[in-house]
């Protein structure tokens, strides 16, 4: 089976995500907040490391871009100054769509899904919202010492036609968030290149009834055969230690067919 979508995506990725892409540059002193539909027109947004974060190992750095509930972000490049990484990437505060968003130098994370509450203007109270939908269509991320996508909130994440290169981990359901939810992760037409050996494309929590569905995953690079499509953990609430219980498909929490995973 040929991976026409992924092959095309890889070509686009190399064209866009390299330093040779001639994009308009904007250095951000503060997080860019998106409340509606916003087309970056391939502007390269770079965070001031002293104001937003240097992309190092420090937790709780600010995002470069914050996408509010229901907004759409498209055609963006998240970059970083020389010697730094891109702080905490993009935060989705609720349901969001990220179309063709590229991350040159992933910092803490490339994307974080955070939807946990919706605001009821009639009763003036916050209510837990478990129906958030986070959509990533196209785009890619590279050069990460950590995770590419961190799923902390509630709801369903759908990732399609995405490209990951030279990163440590893929997509993770939070294993030790203070507030935990049942999360669903659907990944289709993903191309992964040079992920760290022994690590995962998707990680889920069995005790919180997470579900991951993987289709048409293409793993390439020297580490390819040592990368796990899925790891299943027992998560915890708070700052405890989550425990690995299984690697691979189990037909309940991590679902994929053998033919959906292709190597090199």
TrEMBL record:
Pfam families: Pectate_lyase. It comes from the Eukaryota. Its EC number is 4.2.2.2. It catalyses: Eliminative cleavage of (1->4)-alpha-D-galacturonan to give oligosaccharides with 4-deoxy-alpha-D-galact-4-enuronosyl groups at their non-reducing ends. InterPro entries: Pectate_lyase_PlyH/PlyE-like, Pectin_lyas_fold, Pectin_lyase_fold/virulence. SUPFAM superfamilies: Pectin lyase-like. One of its GO terms (molecular function) is pectate lyase activity. Keywords: Calcium, Lyase, Secreted, Signal. It is found in: Secreted. GO terms for biological process: pectin catabolic process. One of its GO terms (cellular component) is extracellular region. It is an enzyme of class 4 (lyase). Its cofactor is Ca(2+). Belongs to the polysaccharide lyase 3 family. Pectinolytic enzyme consist of four classes of enzymes: pectin lyase, polygalacturonase, pectin methylesterase and rhamnogalacturonase. Among pectinolytic enzymes, pectin lyase is the most important in depolymerization of pectin, since it cleaves internal glycosidic bonds of highly methylated pectins. Favors pectate, the anion, over pectin, the methyl ester. This is Probable pectate lyase F.
């Amino acid at each position: 089976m040929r991976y026409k979508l992924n092959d095309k995506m890889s070509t686009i990725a190399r064209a866009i995500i390299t330093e040779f892409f001639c994009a308009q540059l904007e250095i951000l002193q503060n997080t860019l907040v998106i409340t509606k539909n916003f087309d970056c027109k391939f502007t390269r947004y770079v965070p001031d490391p002293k104001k937003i974060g240097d992309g190092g190992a420090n937790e709780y750095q600010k995002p470069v871009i914050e996408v509010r509930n229901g907004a759409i972000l498209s055609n963006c490049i998240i970059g970083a100054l020389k010697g730094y990484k891109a702080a905490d990437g993009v935060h989705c505060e609720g349901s969001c769509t990220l179309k063709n968003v590229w991350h040159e130098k992933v910092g803490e994370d490339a994307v974080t899904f955070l939807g946990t509450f919706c605001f009821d203007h009639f009763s003036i109270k916050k209510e837990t919202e478990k129906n958030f939908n986070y959509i990533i269509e196209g785009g890619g991320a590279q050069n990460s010492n950590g995770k590419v996508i961190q799923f902390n909130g509630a709801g369903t994440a759908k990732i399609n036609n995405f490209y990951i290169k030279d990163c440590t981990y893929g997509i993770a359901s939070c294993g030790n968030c203070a507030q935990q939810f049942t999360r669903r992760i659907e990944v289709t037409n993903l191309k992964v290149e040079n992920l760290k050996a022994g690590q995962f494309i998707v990680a889920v929590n069995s005790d919180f009834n997470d579900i991951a569905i993987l289709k048409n995953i293409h793993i390439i690079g020297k580490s390819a055969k040592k990368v796990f499509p899925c790891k299943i953990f027992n998560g915890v609430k708070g700052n405890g230690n989550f425990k690995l219980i299984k690697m691979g498909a189990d037909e309940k929490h991590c679902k994929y067919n053998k033919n959906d995973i292709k190597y090199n």
